[in-house]
Design goal:
homodimer, alpha/beta, Rossmann fold, Dihydrodipicolinate Reductase, domain 2, Alpha-Beta Plaits, 3 domains, six-stranded parallel sheet, six-stranded mixed sheet, 14 helices, HDH_CS (chains A, B), NADP (chains A, B)
């Protein structure tokens, strides 16, 4: 079988870039098995050859460092340019030149896509190449591709999301630990969730760029930054969060794009979110999107919105989509299914007068299990419809041990069921 | 510009099939604008020409009814066969013949994909066509495509999901209304969430098929039905649900596929799910999946798992994916962004002695808004760190009305902020 190759040049070898390199090399064999295409990293663009960590990376993963974009673009064997420099300049000029040289481009650059997709997408189209940007919105959450396929034939009514992990972390800490905005920001900076200059995050600018990209994907509209009504969270006080909670709401910094008749409403703003809205459940640095559409109804998706590994995985997903022109192959890595021993919980009813019996005798059940000790990890009792119930949870058990334990418990009273559990 | 066509034959014109027809016709123009390809429904396969509703549908949407699969497969202008007959036979034979005739196939048939993907996917590959089955797992939730791209280069550790809406509805009603299993099932049947013969749902068989498909996508493994450890929910009692809740868990019927060293664990079972696990928040007929993977971490997605419109939208998504070989076009349907008047909530602090003042005077603020009445919809007070706070919520206001209201409130005390809210 002929080995097709996909040859890649990396622009930007920072935390996401080097993770992309590492994961691509690690996944070369798997991606080949899935697609019949072998990915090869050929170049890494650097500003200077002095950077030792980049030299090490290039040496370890067998690619060539170059300080010349021309060198990359003139190499006709290069299929894809992966841009992970970030911000608008010179990333935009580099991408324009790469597209004009008929290279596919994959990027995580939200600032750029938000502002220049209107220019870059037609340029890619005219040159017969693809511009992939799954990583530009909500890091590791698959949202760009689903909006191009799953929701493309539906009418999207609104997308609301927690699109910035830094501010969600700050709001969470302000609520759960009654920290001031300043103290929560400092904590976020110490933990690496906020940059030393947090302006883009806390003023809602980062989320506004994502709102612009979502508007492009959901409504084929190319809003300007000025079209987004942007409010950050710098004026939010812990008392507001506490009062809102009392009142049944959480305050979240939401990015929103909504269709209103023939117009779009685009905004980023702190917002009261009802506790039974799934967005209210999303805490710390997690991102989430709630999509309302006419045919499907409500779709909710949450996951990591940033971080080198999730973002790099979205970059790889674009490469995978690029080469995936046929169904997955059928390599059979896991030929055998297997039933794991699992943690079981017992729900046991006991007559009122015996209340507490199970609890006392629970430890004794250990001797009834042959090959494995049933370690009682939790035990308790409750009342439902004037009946008493006792329950206990064990360590993971083999099915033999479970059967033996159930038998021994049955001697003590009525076992109404046993059931696995997950945290 | 040349108009490319994608010509379609429908096998099956039931509730999903007729919805697919309706949505395809409705979206022809949009899909053309996005992809440059025009979709045309050419045939509908029927067992007999006597079915009046199918004759009506064909007439309304201008396609031809035929009782001959040969007629469809011999028509070289047909590109795609959409199979929505359901169950294994004769759907499998039809799909095999369609693939052999080099037609792309899109299907929602989970029974078939679960058991015969191992045979059908290579057949599609050998014939250079695509087999799309986004609708086969979790209805309107995008999961098949994301598993082929976003997660394809990640290592999936586990997928756990609420994969059957009928049983989730039953469990929800058993908990919230303390109904017996039988009463909850009857209610589900009355509301159309359960079939008259509910065996496939309540015994976990439907969920097991979905687990098999998830295992294929996530692990390129082709388990047999016997490889799945399947338990249904027919023995669950309301007391178990109530006791589990007391104990901090909800009981959900979960489908699971997990990687354990070199083996897979596949099961469907009622399971205790901790309340802070997002799966515990999914009630009624909604479906959801929690994907754990090495690079991305945790991704959660929820939405409608069944229903004609969501399922039909997933079928359309497969067609969209089939023709989407380039980026989206740039039709500009919504040229102007717009800031909607929105419901505002006020968080107001008041000194202890004035407690209740705002509440009394709230109605009076109406006169201060010029162009619009500020109707007070909710009002209340609470205490935080020994300070008293009062809050109120209004109807949607114009920004002028909002400013006027804020001014009037400021005269009565310290307004600490105003913030939009969503339910």
């Amino acid at each position: 079988m002929e080995v097709k190759k996909l040859r890649i040049a990396m622009l930007g070898l920072g935390s996401v870039g080097s993770k992309v390199v590492e994961l691509l090399v690690k996944n070369t064999e798997r991606m080949y098995q899935m697609t019949g295409v072998e990915i090869e990293i050929v170049y890494g663009l650097v500003r200077s050859f002095d950077e030792e960590d980049k030299q090490k990376l290039a040496k370890k993963f067998h690619f060539q460092l170059t300080d010349s974009l021309d060198h990359i673009l003139n190499d006709e064997t290069i299929d894809v340019v992966v841009e992970l420099i970030g911000r608008v300049h010179p990333a935009k000029e580099y991408i324009v030149r790469a597209l004009e040289a008929k290279k596919h481009v994959v990027t995580a650059n939200k600032d750029l896509l938000a502002q220049y997709a209107v220019e870059l997408l037609p340029l890619a189209y005219q040159n017969g190449v693809t511009l992939g940007y799954e990583a530009s919105v909500a890091g590791g959450i698959p949202i760009v591709h689903p909006l191009k396929t799953q929701f493309a034939t539906d009418q999207i009514e609104s997308i609301r999301g927690i699109l910035n992990g830094t501010t969600n972390f700050i709001l969470t800490k302000m609520l759960t630990e009654a920290l001031s905005y300043e103290a929560a920001l400092t904590l976020a900076q110490e933990l690496g969730f906020a940059e030393s200059d947090p302006t883009n995050d806390v003023e809602g600018i980062d989320a506004a760029y994502k709102v612009m990209i979502l508007a492009q994907l959901a409504f084929h509209s190319y809003p300007k930054f000025e079209d987004v009504d942007v409010k950050g969270l710098t004026t939010i006080q812990p008392s507001q969060l506490a009062v809102a909670k009392e009142f049944g709401y959480k305050i979240k910094l939401l990015g929103e794009v909504r269709a209103l008749k023939d117009q779009l409403s685009l905004r980023v703003t702190p917002c009261l979110v009802a506790m039974d809205n799934p967005l209210a459940q999303i805490d710390n640095e997690t991102n989430a999107l709630l999509i309302k559409s006419t045919q499907i109804g409500e779709t909710f998706i949450s996951g990591p919105g940033a971080g080198a590994a999730p973002t790099a995985t979205s970059v790889l997903a674009d490469l995978q989509a690029l080469i995936l022109k046929k169904e997955l192959g059928s390599s059979n890595q896991y030929p055998q299914a297997f039933y794991e021993n699992t943690t079981y919980s017992f729900l046991k009813s006991a007559p009122k007068e015996k209340f507490g019996i199970v609890m006392k005798k629970a430890k004794a059940t250990q001797k009834f299990t042959n090959d494995q000790l049933a370690d009682i990890q939790k035990i308790g009792h409750t009342t439902f419809l004037e009946e008493n119930y006792e329950w206990l949870v064990t360590n993971p058990l083999s099915s033999e041990a479970l059967t033996a334990l159930l038998e021994s418990l049955t001697k003590m009273g009525t076992v109404i069921g046993s059931i696995p559990f997950i945290d």
